[in-house]
Structure formats: structure tokens, C-alpha cells
Predict the structure.
Amino acid sequence: MKSLSPLYLFFLLLINCGNPESFDVLIQNARILDGSGAEAFSGDIGIRADTIAAIGDLAGAKADMVIDAEGDVASPGFIDIHTHLDPILELSDCESHIRQGVTTALGGPDGRSPWPYASYLDSLEAIGIGMNVGYLLGHNTVRRNVMGLDNRAPTGEELAEMQAQVRQAMEEGAFGISTGLKYLPGAFSKVDEVIALSREAAAYGGIYTSHLREEGLGLIDAVQEAIEISAGADIPVILTHHKVVGKPMWGQSSRTLALVDSARTAGLDIKIDQYPYNASYTGISILIPAWARAGGNEAFRERIANPVLRDSIKDGIVFNIINDRGGDDLSRVQFAKVSWMPQLEGQTLADWCAIKGMEPSIENGAELVIEAQLNGGASCVFFAMDEGDVIQIMKHPQTMIASDGRLVAPGMGHPHPRWYGTFPRVLGEYVREKQVLPLAEAVHKMTGLPALAMGLSDRGLLKAGMKADLVIFDPETIADKATFEEPHQYPEGIYYVFINGKAAVKEGAFQEIKAGKILRKTSPRK
């Protein structure tokens, strides 16, 4: 190679000095956490269009938008790997998630997803969305499509039809399959059915996420079942919103995490996601035995009208209030969304007993659960978890942070505070205040790790060539403000959120720009 003369090099230097590097956005003086788990370093970030163009010392560079981070943290945008996106057609700006720093969300969890798949994604593209979204295919959705709410195994023809629907969704861009084995009709499925369907997702490089069959007394068996599915279908598994429910099981996270470690040692890809709260959110029907709800609400009414069956149903509800989600205390069950009696929202089962002039006994609570279900059901917050388990699960190296939250806007019912505060809560409460996690590790659990789990090669890390999804936040002030009493509150301490290079939050203010993209997994069948 011919060497360049000193004079020629001098002229090159003059040319470069006369043409400083130019970007659309320049973030200066940032404390950069790149999402890999590595410690922070000081530097600048240059963005062109939707891509990170450069990271380092960009002194002298010019840009249309220049932000002096003044030492605040710049990290990849947070990836919520368990999101209930159901209201997205109504709340397409995704404000409640974006203001937490979330730039990408994975929908279709717990066995429930849109169908038909491709046309739904097309409809989202048509209206525009605030953040990037991808979807899983729900096992419960597929089973209901083919078998309704029947409590039985599928015929060979029905199984083949379900497998065909899984293949169709995977070819249309699904990231994998989710199950809700505690919910209907998934509760009626056996492990061989789930493995057969999961193999179809695995053939396209998909993942399997599971609301386990049990999260209380049957938790250990349920974790073992998920591991069996991973081995049988040759598929990565995520124990989603992993938790330990009910006083009799508190402390058993040590056993579930040991099972995860053993499975990984054996070569299986098992991960976890978790929200940072000691209370869950789901329908009040979770307190009712699954067999009692087979066939839907009309079948449930018929069983309740039968005195013998009614007694059995009530006994099952009493058992679940004592040992499972009820936490052995009616005040631990708080109504969140009650279409037939909105004044109950924010009140507890114990409060409802008082309103009706009843003693707050477990048996009376069971009667009210039946009444609620006959009225159409209700969504509730269940305070039945122990903080020690929450912390132990959070610290596991394979645990990702995920909200299990639903898109929401102020005034919409009485939601779980995780819908507004999951990611800031980890960074404020569990990093800064309780020092459960180092900051770099917490950010990794929100960015690089879920990107790896989803197979996203262009998001989740801050480096040149990646998509420009970023968050700028103050680690000394970031905090969730939503509480169980007053949930409709946005977090503090997040100043900028960039999605595909566009500022969706600017100087702390939300921008209605809809910069999100529909993400489709495109792996060919193996």
C-alpha cells in the first residue's frame, strides 16, 4: 500500500476540520449505559435518521437537535417483554408506556392474542403507533378458535388445525407462542398438546412464554412442566411474571430458581420476567375452580343453580382465598375494574362485605366472588406475595423486568400501578433506595437481556448501527409515582425518550408523534 505524504495528510486534516461531523440529534455529556451490563462511561451519542451513527467523543459535531445530558444516564430504550396491548387501537400513542422509558413492547402474553394475526398488525400500521410492538400468538386464542371452552383433549383433526394456526402466525411475524395455563381454555390442556403446538413455533425460531399452570401451592410442579415443555419442544422458555402466590408458599422462590439453574446447566434456555410489586392483577374468576367455568358463563350459571355443585364451587373458592390469591384476608383483594358497579373500584372484598352488611368472613367473601362472576366478573389486585420472593427473583441473572401492564390513560378504572410505574420503580426503589441491583445490571435486565430473548439484533444496546431507541434519565430522581391508592400518576425523572430517532418525550413532556414500528419476526422454518 502506498504511504501518504505528510503534506497530503495535512490537507485531509484541514478538510475534515472544515466539515465537522453532522447528525440529526447529538446527545452530549451523557453517562452511557450501553445495555450489556457493563459499567457506565462518559461520552456523546450521534443519531442520524432512525439509527445510532456514532458514540464517543463527538466534540465539534453539529446537529439539528443538541441535548446536554449534564451527566444524566443515557441507556437503550426499555423493552417490555410482557405487555397487555389490548387497548392499543384506542390508545395508539402508548403514552403510559413511553413515559416509563419503554420503546418496544411484546404483546400477546398469557395465552391471549389478536386473531387473525396479519390483518391485525396491518391495522396497527395503518393508524400508527407510539412505540415499537411485536406479538406472540396466544395458545388460549388458538384453542378457543378450534375447540371453544371444551374441557377435553383435542382430536387429531383439532390438534392439526391448531398447529396450522401456529404456523400461519409464525409465518406472519409472531415472535413465538404464549400460554395461560391457569386461564380458560388453556387450563384444560395437557402437556403433550402444549409441546405439539410449541414445536411449531420453535421451528421458526420462536419463544415460549407461560403464565404457569399454578403460581401457588402447585408452583413447583408448574415450573417443572415449563421445563419439560422446553425440552420436549426444543424451545426457549420464559417463566413470565414469575412469582410465589399465597402464604403457604412464601419463600419457595429459592426452589423455583434452583430448578431454572439446573435446567440451564442441562442445556435448556430458561429465562424469567418479573414486575417489581408484591401484588398481582387479574380477573376475580381466578379464585373460582377452572372446572366450574368450563363452557363459559352460562354453564357456570347452571352449575351455581345446582346446590351440590354450588357447594363444591364455594369450597374451591374458600380454598383459594385462604391458600392462593386471596392471601387469607378479604382486604387483600382489591377491585380494579367493575363495569356493573364502578363504585367498587378501589374497594376490597372486605369493603364490599361492609357495604352489604355482612361479616368479612372467608365464606362470605366466597359468596361475593360468585355474585361478582354472575354479574360479569371483575378485575382485581391481589396482595398475596412476599417481598422477599420479589427481591430474590429480581436478583437472578436470567430475570428480565416486564410490566405485565396494560396501556392506560388517566381516569380508566383503578389499575395496578405497574401500568404506569414498573421500570422507574426498579431504578428508583430497587436500585437507588434498596440497592437490590446495581444500576448497570438493572438496565441490562430492561434492555439487552429482553432483546436477546426476543432475538432483536438491532435494539437493546447502545452502539453504532443500532436503532436509535434511547432513554435519558436522572438516576438520582427517577421514581414511580403511581400507588395502589392513586394509580393514575406518571413517573418522574425521565427527560427524553427517543423511538427510532424521534423524540417521543422531550424535556419531560410527551410528544404525540407515533414513531413506533410493527416488529415481525422473519426466521424461516427450520
